[in-house]
Amino acid sequence: MPLLSVESLRMYYQVGRGFVKAVDGVSFNLGKGETLGIAGESGCGKSSLALTLLRILPSNARIIDGSVLLEERDILKMNEETLRKEIRWKRISIVFQGAMNALNPVFRVGDQIAEAILLHEDVTKEEAHRRARELLKLVGIPPSRADNYPHEFSGGMKQRVMIAMALACNPDIVIADEPTTALDVIVQAQILKLLKDLRAKLNLSLILITHDLSIISEICDKVAIMYAGKIMEYGSAYDIFKNPLHPYTQGLIAAIPSIRGPKKKLRSIPGTPPDLLNPPSGCPFHPRCPYADEICRQEPPPLVRLGRDRYVVCHKIEEGSA
Ligand code: ATP
Ligand code: SF4
């Protein structure tokens, strides 16, 4: 049984002119110690999906239907107190997009981690500070740096601090939303290595959200390609990179620059993702898809299962075509 099992999840934002369908029928599984990468262009609903899993949503968000089973318990059916006391931080924690810039400049880094521990665990101040130093060591920062202020840390170190905070209550799952965006490539590689090491050391499950497929190819076991609030292709990273089936996945992979192998011309996908307040009829990718025809423009595409853990949402894919 998977650790996390998400089924037909829908979350819309209510706005003056209707509903923004940010998460529109999403299903996936995550096993213990596994890493799932969620990829797609900006505005496809990746962050909204992460926020829906933990139900940390703005007041105009409406969870329409679906389930989010953590082992056998449905997070969508829990009351706020259970979520606060048992789930957030303790079972699932999140490193928010751009969070490293949210460290408070006037408090020492160690104090900020200790504060997070004190907020969620019944421990003494001394114990919280001891754990804060242990956590810094775990993410590769000398514990003596606990007494420094955020401005004394580089961007990569601040991101390590945010990861340490996410680990403060020993969660089973960490969701990292664009954890390496805004870092230079060398620091990006170091943060990815850290996540890999932590996964192995702590048997952590990771959900990594990114617009950068090359990051996913380095670290993830499974991939979900998201477009217009839907997962268009889902499967093992090996299968998806070896044999991408959905035209959107093919487009994203063709746009990854490579420094190894023969030079190839990079192709970008023409157009931009749709307005989710008013998505296109039929397949939401049809205005950008080179294979679109009349049925694509009119009928929503079916979810075609190609194995226990692989599916594609497209009119042109038939069962058994993987
Ligand atoms: P990015 O990588 O840029 O963060 P994303 O794939 O994570 O993009 P989301 O941020 O989840 O996408 O946004 C999905 C859609 O929901 C977008 O159309 C966005 O404008 C819309 N959206 C996000 N928050 C709200 C809100 N509070 N009210 C209305 N619409 C929202
Ligand atoms: Fe392209 Fe049609 Fe498949 Fe959509 S359903 S991805 S438009 S071929």
Notes on the structure:
The model has no long low-confidence stretch (mean pLDDT 92). This protein has an eight-stranded mixed sheet with strand order 6-7-8-3-9-10-12-11, with helices on both faces. Strand 1 and strand 2 (18-30) form a beta hairpin. The longest helix is centred in the middle third of the chain and has 18 residues, at 185-202. The two termini are 25 Å apart. 31% of the residues lie in helices and 25% in strands. The protein has ten helices and twelve strands. With 322 residues, it is an alpha/beta fold. It has a single domain, classed as P-loop containing nucleotide triphosphate hydrolases (Rossmann fold, 3-Layer(aba) Sandwich). Adenosine-5'-triphosphate is lined by residues 13, 15, 20, 22, 40, 42-48, 58, 60, 211, 276.
Number of domains: 1
Distance between the termini: 25 Å
Cα radius of gyration in angstroms: 20 Å
* Largest sheet descriptor: 8 strands, mixed
Number of helical segments with 4 or more residues: 10
- Order of helices and strands, N to C? EEEHEEHEHHHEHEHEEHHHEE
Work out the helicity level.
25-40%
**Strand order, largest beta sheet:** 6-7-8-3-9-10-12-11
Q: What structural category do the secondary elements indicate? A: alpha/beta
Average pLDDT taken over every residue: 92
